[in-house]
Amino acid sequence: MADIFHVLVVEDDPDVAEYLRLVLVKKAGMRVDVVADADLASDILRRVEIDVLLTDIELPGSSGLELAARAREVTPLLPVVVMTAHASVDYAVSALRSQADEFLVKPIAAAKLVSAITELAQRGRDRRTAAAGGTILAIGAHPDDVEIGVGGLLAVHRAAGDAVVVLTMSRGARGGVADQRQDESLAAAEILGARLFLEDLVDTRISPADPTVSIIENVVSEVAPSVVYTHTPHDRHQDHRAVHQAASVATRRVPTFACYQSPSATVDFRPNRFVPIDGFTDVKLALLDCFTTQAGIRDYLEPDFVLATARYWSRFGGGRSCEPLEVIRDTSGPRVAAGAATALQGARPGGEVFG
Fold this sequence. Notes:
Layout: E1 6-10, H1 14-27, E2 31-35, H2 38-47, E3 52-56, H3 64-74, E4 80-84, H4 89-97, E5 102-105, H5 110-132, E6 135-140, H6 145-159, E7 163-168, H7 178-192, E8 195-198, H8 212-223, E9 227-231, H9 238-250, E10 256-260, E11 273-276, H10 281-289, H11 303-317, E12 322-330, H12 338-343
Parallel strand pairs: 1-2, 1-3, 3-4, 4-5, 6-7, 6-9, 7-8, 9-10
Antiparallel strand pairs: 10-12, 11-12
């Protein structure tokens, strides 16, 4: 089920307020509260978690810009949209100085309104998730790459309270029917509780430069991850190497960058971190079981193969099952977000965790 976003509309013109409410409720399926002045809005913001504040500038009493500034003090991560019927530069500058995320000029087209509010609502939730725990971004070239490499670890992250985002660069048309593989990816993301970005670059022809770099940069900008997992450069598959190269550039400001093992990884794959996934191997098998188009033609998806691989790596990492990582960069300081650190407790060698 899609997220239901909660929007607070502050508008003293009853006709405009009703228009905004109807559009957001009927066309976007949002929950909408409407008030006519800044004081009532401030009271709601102190008591209720809101996804977006949408306010007119000209209000009785305090202005919408004053309300925007006040809202930032109460909930610093709350997205704020200000609107006015006067399309002047002065208003736009004032709105930006009040730290509004968007400036809309009335009359506002329904499509524009829905698009702006939906985007900001999701961005706000991502901000809060990142602040509360951590956001983990796992990048793969094809459907099932991420699940094979770090499916267990991502399940550990989710259990620790982290948000998990999966970015898959192609729909894997060379390995099956693209639409079917897309559906398989969506099913795996649902089991994991992950947000899925599924791109459609040409399978076997993924570039290490643009558009791959730009795609990854855009996702990094949107979800603000603290940890990134992707392919190792020590891999026979050209797409895997290209995604690693692009990701190493596009995620250069992310504190932790680590590489997982693919079935096509070479003997030069040299992990330096081993993360126990005891208690989460069933989840990993369930994720891989989603990829039915690959069953029977990919030996490495067979459950006994998956479990044996995890069992082998446990000789270095402890427990009974581990996933190996090449940690390329870890500049997270004393500690990555609390959830990520918890997820990686027990990682070896020496009981190290990221941070």
